[in-house]
Automatic annotation (TrEMBL):
Membrane topology of the entry: Single-pass membrane protein
GO annotation terms (biological process): protein transport
Alphabetized Pfam families for the sequence: NIF
Domain FCP1 homology: 96-266
The protein, known as: Mitochondrial import inner membrane translocase subunit TIM50
Subunit architecture: Component of the TIM23 complex.
Signal peptide (residue range): none
Extent of Basic and acidic residues compositional bias: 1-19, 44-54
Species the sequence originates in: Achaetomium macrosporum
Similarity section: Belongs to the TIM50 family.
Amino acid sequence: MAETDPKDSSVTRHLDALRHPPASKPSTTTAGPVAKSGTRRPAKGADSRDRDDGPANPSNHGDRDPITPPSAASGGIPEPTAAYLVRASFAPMLRATPQPLLVVIDLNGTLLHRPQKRAATKFVERPLARAFLQRCIDKHRVVIWSSARPENVRHMCERLLTPEYASRVVAVWGRDRFGLSPSDYNRRTQCYKRLTRLWEDPVVRASHPLAEQGGGWNQGNTVLIDDSAEKARSEPHNAVTLPEFVGDMNEKPQVLTLVEEYLDTLAWQTDISTYIRSRPFTVGRSEAAVPAQEQG
């Protein structure tokens, strides 16, 4: 298990600058309709593995409060819109050249495991986590988005990122970026990572390589890497869902190596949501072994 290191002030300053102040009002975003031909998941409203959403002062009886669906004031339980499902329904097509992606990466359960939920600086890194994160930053545009509280997200990022790599992260978002009502924020509320929030954010939008020419991030070029499929409920065909990391340093296969291969394949797709819909990420399958004609 990693030991606590002294804080790197330059990383801290940059991470603080990346985080934007929360909106003054909770989100009132409502889910759009679902195409009749689209596959709908049951409205569970809670992922039992959602570990980062506990209240600041849990009860003393030893049991954590149950995870509850978000209230209407927090936007409720989202569903993919009809337009989203239609766009993802087409056959995948290869590009002539690869494109940079907006890669949105979760922390706990994805890149690391926190045995003590309230000790943000004490965690076990998933094998190759730092190298994977650095290569994503080298190749793509990266946003770190966790449902943990902002101060805990900052502590985790300080441990994972060098100052140089921290300076190249587009944004670091925590629990304050889900549009939760005050009461939901302080409960173990199921969080949903609505990618539209990222696409509409001025800082994230400006990070697109062709932003000045009208280019932007959308379902065709955005990937959400998380261990919870439920969090990707509003844009399911942009999700790369990993098995939850619980501290096994001998995990086989090494999941992040497979994810990196999958991202390399996605970069060649005209619209990555069509590819993920038709060929979702699967542990145990190497994208490097997939013929180009099958990938397309």
